[in-house]
Design a protein that fits this description.
The complex is a heterodimer of chains A (about 260) and B (about 350).
Chain A lengths: L1 H29 L10 H8 L1 H34 L5 H13 L2 H11 L12 H29 L3 H10 L4 H12 L1 H17 L2 H5 L5 H11 L3 H25 L9
Helix pairs in contact in A: 1-12, 2-12, 3-6, 3-9, 4-6, 6-9, 7-8, 9-12, 11-12
Chain B lengths: L3 E10 L2 E11 L4 E5 L6 H9 L6 E6 L2 E2 L10 E4 L11 H11 L4 H14 L15 H13 L5 E5 L7 H18 L2 E6 L2 H7 L2 E6 L2 E6 L1 H6 L4 H6 L4 E9 L4 E4 L2 E4 L11 E6 L5 E2 L6 E13 L3 E8 L2 E8 L12 E7 L4 E3 L2
Parallel strand pairs in B: 3-8, 3-9, 6-7, 7-8
Antiparallel strand pairs in B: 1-2, 1-4, 4-5, 9-10, 11-12, 11-14, 12-13, 14-20, 15-19, 16-17, 16-19, 17-18
Helix pairs in contact in B: 2-3, 2-4, 3-4
The chains are: A mainly alpha (about 260), B alpha+beta (about 350).
Chain lengths: ~260, ~350
């Protein structure tokens, strides 16, 4: 019994080391910019860099817009598929999984081919068009996470009865979606939203190929030109992702009401 | 003209006809139950009245206005669901006020009406709770208040008591009837529980395979069932085979004894018919001379508390009878030879 427990601990420790050692190494390296000991100099330089602030700000805004677009697109779709077209669910699930199967580079090349300046819809020809294209691209990338989160949320409530109850009380579709369905799947929507946020913040391929100055290309540029700062930047990026994960946990745990028995 | 008028209502799902030529007039303030087994079409009719299903053909009128093609949210109908369907993100007060808010009423008017409704259901202290903090019975009371708050023309209840335990079911059933009477609201109550339907309804519609087999008061439905299905579905029934002796005078042979039914029969001499009677109309032992007396052997005794149900084997068939429990008289034992007497005037002849 005791021996078995020892092996279990050993397996956990090995797994932990596998994930933690590179992180420890990275944090350690990022703090060795000054030769006389540990310091936050690299972090100071990174955080003070106007380009860092600008690219991060841009990516944050884009991530928030992606989340809004994702909610507007996914919540009604998942809701109506569940309510009216349950037979279509496998098809929609497959479609929303495609962004995981098709590499982003293929998608973005497709975009560039279809929406280039000599096409019918020359989106890449203007600043607004390019940003719109990037936004749509990110909404596509977020589909697998958003759809699954929302669909899981919808599974925990009796969509049919709640809809009918609201209808019998005089509600139209917009009110049903906004006042009855969305608040009840909000925790799931937020889980999907934070994942989307984490993906968009660090995304490189779309942004680089559409030549947009977002946080992803900035990190790559930094990695190619500096020594200590890239590690500091990576730690910052990790911190943002972890903060998102922590927020998912917090929102799930401290939601005011719950459809699940506590 | 009736307040709620359902004419030639039909509903098919693909090739399956689930509701067939359903007709019903309901007067204002009437409480009507749809009673039937699962899949008989009772809920489908209710859902068509609510506007959740579109009829294949037929018409529904409420207070003289045709609503057949009207969307559910424009019918002004209150609905109570088996699963309560309270909005989990809203408090009790917000749930009850939901319909009023949709109707665009002011905050003060909503608060006043919510207060009235909470008093009506006897839960004024729970207005700030969320649905998950309430028991099943409390949730269903809130659902009832929510449905009634916007003053609907018709109240529809879709098996509202099925998910509750026996005690709560009975108390809530009485409460629903009291509230319906107090408000004078027209109500349709769907249930598969005959006791529920018989105990609270003004009229009962017994449904079978998409057809309304019989519409009548609980007394009529129980005592004069129109079809074999109604007779068998509502209450417990003894069914005994008898041979026709003389169809014109209504004479049959039952358990070797000739019996005059005082009603003409269909069938030729020697043909077999079914006679039905309720357990409470059968008596143990000989009573007055106006009854048919058969002898048999006790096959089973079920002690149900206030009532004892005894099963007697008579000429190869079984007759169930009910006697009241008497503390000084223990129930007879299995195997005892006894006589049972049947009221020959109350024997129902059922069509095959």
């Amino acid at each position: 019994m005791r021996e078995r427990r020892l092996w279990s601990w050993l397996a956990v420790a090995l797994g932990g080391l596998y994930f933690l050692l590179p992180l420890v190494g990275m944090v350690d390296f990022s703090m060795r910019m000054q030769r006389d000991g540990y310091s936050f100099e690299a972090y100071r330089i990174v955080l003070a860099d106007p380009q860092f602030q600008q690219t991060l700000g841009y990516s944050v805004v884009l991530a928030l817009l992606t989340i809004v677009l994702g909610i507007l697109l996914i919540v009604p779709t998942a809701y109506f598929v569940r309510l009216r077209f349950p037979g279509l669910r496998p098809v929609v699930e497959f479609l929303t999984l495609l962004p995981l199967v098709i590499p982003p580079i293929v998608i973005v090349f497709g975009y560039i081919r279809i929406y280039n300046t000599s096409s019918v819809l020359p989106l890449t020809g203007s600043w607004w068009g390019t940003n719109l294209l990037l936004l749509f691209g990110y909404a596509t990338l977020s589909l697998p996470y958003m759809y699954r989160s929302v669909d899981t949320g919808l599974r925990t409530i009796d969509v049919g009865s709640l809809t009918e109850a609201a209808q019998s009380l005089g509600s139209g579709w917009t009110r049903i979606l906004a006042v009855v369905i969305l608040p009840n799947v909000l925790v799931s929507v937020l889980s999907g939203a934070f994942l989307t946020f984490a993906i968009v913040i660090g995304e490189y391929v779309f942004a680089a190929l559409l030549n947009v100055g977002s946080f992803g290309p900035y990190m790559v540029w930094m990695g190619g030109n500096r020594a200590y700062e890239p590690s500091a930047l990576a730690v910052v990026a990790f911190a943002i992702t972890w903060a998102c994960m922590a927020l998912i946990q917090l929102v799930t745990r401290f939601s005011k009401f719950s459809t699940v028995r506590r | 003209m009736a307040f709620l008028d359902i004419q030639h209502l039909e509903k098919s799902f693909g090739p399956t006809r689930v509701v067939k030529d359903f007709n019903l007039d309901i007067e204002k303030g009437e409480f009507v139950s749809f009673l039937g087994p699962s899949g008989c079409g009772k809920t489908t009719v209710l859902r068509m009245v609510a506007g959740f299903e579109a009829p294949t053909s037929g018409a529904i009128r409420i207070d003289g206005r045709e609503v057949t093609g009207l969307a559910a949210n424009r019918r002004n109908i209150g609905m109570v669901f088996q699963s309560y369907a309270l909005f989990p993100n809203l408090t009790v007060a917000e749930n009850i006020g939901f319909g009023l808010k949709v109707a665009g009423e002011g905050k003060a008017a909503i608060a006043r009406r919510v207060g009235e409704m909470l008093d009506l259901i006897g839960l004024p202290q729970l207005e700030g709770r969320y649905p998950f903090q309430l028991s099943g019975g409390q949730q269903q009371r809130v659902a009832l208040a929510r449905a009634l708050a916007p003053r609907p023309q018709v109240l529809l209840l879709d098996e509202p008591l099925s998910a509750l335990d026996a005690k709560v079911r009975i108390s809530l059933r009485d409460e629903i009837r009291r509230i319906q009477r107090d408000l004078g609201i027209t109500a349709i109550f769907v249930t598969h529980d005959q006791e529920e339907a018989l105990s609270i309804s003004d009229r009962v519609v017994v449904m079978h395979q998409g057809v309304a087999d019989q519409v009548g008061t609980p007394f009529e439905i129980y005592n004069r069932p129109a079809t074999r299905f109604v007779a068998q579905f509502v209450g417990t029934l003894n069914l005994l085979d008898a041979d026709v002796l003389d169809a014109t005078t209504g004479k049959v042979r039952l358990g070797g004894v000739p019996v005059a039914l005082d009603q003409p029969l269909e069938g030729r001499p020697g043909e077999r018919i079914s006679l039905a009677m309720r357990p409470e109309s059968v008596e143990l032992g000989r009573s007055d001379c106006d009854r048919v007396v058969l002898s048999g052997e006790i096959a089973a005794v079920h002690f149900l508390g206030s009532v004892i149900r005894i099963k007697v084997a008579v000429a190869g068939q079984f007759v169930s009878l009910d006697t009241f429990n008497q503390p000084d008289r223990p129930p007879p034992s299995v195997g005892t030879t006894v006589e049972v007497s049947l009221p020959h005037r109350d024997l129902l002849v059922l069509a095959a």
